[in-house]
Design goal:
single chain; 210 residues; alpha+beta; 53% helix
Length: 210
């Protein structure tokens, strides 16, 4: 990658963020100590940064998020929203009046991102099983075994065991497992109801023919 746009500090940072291949979140713990986590996507680093704050409730400061491009250039993102890197594109769209609708196309993208939770919940109620959370990051390592056990129960459709499975949602990983388990239970129960309704319909069909 060539040197980022140097027309202004904002343009320089925006280009690095837009072409970032790695993100880090660092939380200052005091006395020269930091808790640092790496990720390859902005969404993942936001979640990990939130997890850092949750796991260190006594630390008042927030994690500092930094983006790195392929050439090693870096730009501090800190607490900006995940869609922030697209902001510098706005002035370009203002030049021709006809390009203004381009902004409107980006806004629904944010709405869709916010609507994913509602869609996942709606899918579960329709009997569609949720995808298991991604625990590939090192911070989730100690919870991978429990997640595997929950996934196995989901595959067996063991609703009773899923409801009884002990989860203490005090940090990011257990919260993700708890959410997955609850959505899976909703989906499995919806599947059972649909199966029962289908069975009743099939039983009543011969009677209707008589």
């Amino acid at each position: 990658m060539t040197t980022p746009n140097l027309t202004s500090p904002e343009a320089y940072n925006a280009e690095i963020i837009a072409n970032a291949v790695k993100f880090t979140a660092s939380l200052f713990l005091g006395r020269g100590e930091y808790a640092t986590i790496e990720a390859t996507s902005r969404e993942e680093i936001d979640q990990l940064a939130e997890m850092l704050s949750t796991e260190h409730p006594t630390v008042k400061s927030k994690p500092v998020i930094t983006a790195f491009d392929a050439a090693g250039n870096q730009a501090v993102i800190s607490g900006q929203p995940a869609k922030a890197p697209k902001a510098p594109k706005a002035p370009k769209a203002e030049k021709p009046a006809k390009e203004k609708p381009a902004k409107a196309t980006k806004e629904p993208a944010a709405d869709k991102a916010l609507g994913k939770r509602a869609q996942i919940a709606a899918d579960a109620e329709a009997g569609i099983l949720p995808a298991a959370p991604d625990f590939s990051a090192a911070t989730h390592a100690r919870f991978r075994k429990k997640l595997a056990e929950i996934v196995a129960l989901v595959e067996k459709a063991d609703i009773k065991a899923l409801k009884a499975y002990p989860i203490n949602p005090v940090s990011s990983s257990p919260k993700a497992m708890d959410k997955y388990r609850n959505l899976a239970v909703i989906a499995l129960e919806a599947q059972r109801k649909a199966a029962k309704a289908k069975a009743k319909t099939e039983e009543s069909t011969p009677e209707a023919g008589q």
